[in-house]
Amino acid sequence: MHMKKYVRWVNRTLHKCEVHRLDQFRVCFDLNKFSQHEIDKWLEFAFARQVQRLELDLLKGGKETRDFDYCYTFPAQLLGLNDKLPALWHNFMSVKVLLLKSVNVTGEVLEFFLHNCPFLEEMVVHGSGTLVNLQVIGPSLKLKHLEIWRCQCLESLKIHDTNLVTLVASAATKLFLSNAPMLIKVEIVGAFRPILKDILAPISCVLSQLEVLKITSSDGLVLGNYKFPEFTKLKKFVAHVFAWRDTSLLGCTHVIGAAPLLEEFELKLVWFKPLRVKRECKKMVSCPLRHLKVIRLCGYFGRTCEFELVKYFLENAIVLEKIIIDPRSQIVTPVLSLSTIEMEQMSRNFAKLQLEGEVPPHIELVIL
């Protein structure tokens, strides 16, 4: 019912609209394949007016990628693919930003935009079930930001000889990256390959030039005997990992030690069977962190492993200014249960008990 009302409202609005050019056309609503015909018409309307920023955010409930079989499909025929000459071909050239969420789109369609939109700087694709192969190749491309997220049928993402500045990819094993001299910010997901060297392998050619690195592992981080390269320019490091029982977190300090200019560190912990164990804090070899100013620990549960990590920073971060502790659950849910709220409050109390007496006055301690 809500979908039908929304579609009717948009149709009435566009019928009254008399503008000849559009800076932005944004659809942000829970729509699926049953609105295919109407959305196709909306796109024709937008392209006919030389739209510069096009967003189709059709996430389920506004938050979740939907089942691929129910996603709206971007109409390839609108671009004149399938051997048809598009009547509005020249109007696509104005697109600067293309954002598609819970929209089935093919690599052929995306590559059309890449090579026929000379001003395209940002491309975001979330939850496409028809994206199999994509090539982003050529120094003539203006693309600065590329985000390919939760496209589970993706077999190959090739990026070569481009001027990309930011890359977000949730399929590390499918990524083939080379000659990206401008790339300074990368977010990458290791899926179920928790060994850090495997997560970093696809982006090894740019590690020395990165300023921001975010990694996600669905099964914790296993460091093994991996010798880290030096992250000579890294200023911010974010790790999003699963937290099991009281497994030590000190392994992440190896990455931090390999980044001499690091200023900000953030650790996001997803709780699975968290366990508070009374034990002595482990010690790591002392390593002066001369630039680290801000630490943020999300999903803090009050386990010994979290407390010993904070102690490591207190002992080694020479210019540390701020510690932010966020005890809230990092599992995204529409509604928090009473047990989750109670657990978060308990974690908040543990954080205060553990840290308020440890953190010296010149360092700001924030417990959210």
Could you name the key traits of this structure?
alpha/beta, 3-stranded parallel sheet, 18 strands, 21% helix, FBD, At1g61320/At1g61330-like, FBD domain-containing protein, LRR_At1g61320_AtMIF1
Molecular structure report:
Residues 286-358 form the FBD domain. With 368 residues, this protein is an alpha/beta fold. Helix content is 21%, strand content 25%. It contains 7 helices and 18 strands. The strands form 3 sheets. A 13-stranded parallel sheet has the order 1-2-4-6-8-10-12-13-14-15-16-17-18, with helices on one face. The protein has a 3-stranded parallel sheet with strand order 7-9-11. The chain is globular and about 70 Å long. The mean pLDDT is 86.
Concise account of the structure shown:
With 368 residues, the protein is α/β, with parallel strands linked by helices. Helix content is 21%, strand content 25%.
Chain oligomer state = single chain
Poorly predicted regions are none
Question: What is the CA-CA span between the terminal residues?
Answer: 39 Å
Structural class: alpha/beta
Q: Give me the Rg, rounded.
A: 23 Å
Compute the average pLDDT: 86
Major sheet: arrangement of strands: 1-2-4-6-8-10-12-13-14-15-16-17-18
Beta-strand content bin: 25-35%
Please describe the biggest sheet, giving its number of strands, its sense, and whether it closes into a barrel.
Answer: 13 strands, parallel
The topology string of helices and strands comes to HEHEEEEHEEEEEEEHEEHEEHEHE
**How much helix, percentage-wise, in residues?**
10-25%
- SS elements, strand count: 18
**Tally the helices: what do you get?**
7
Spatial shape: globular
Domain FBD: 286-358
InterPro entries: At1g61320/At1g61330-like, FBD, LRR_At1g61320_AtMIF1, LRR_dom_sf
Protein name: FBD domain-containing protein
Pfam families: LRR_At1g61320_AtMIF1
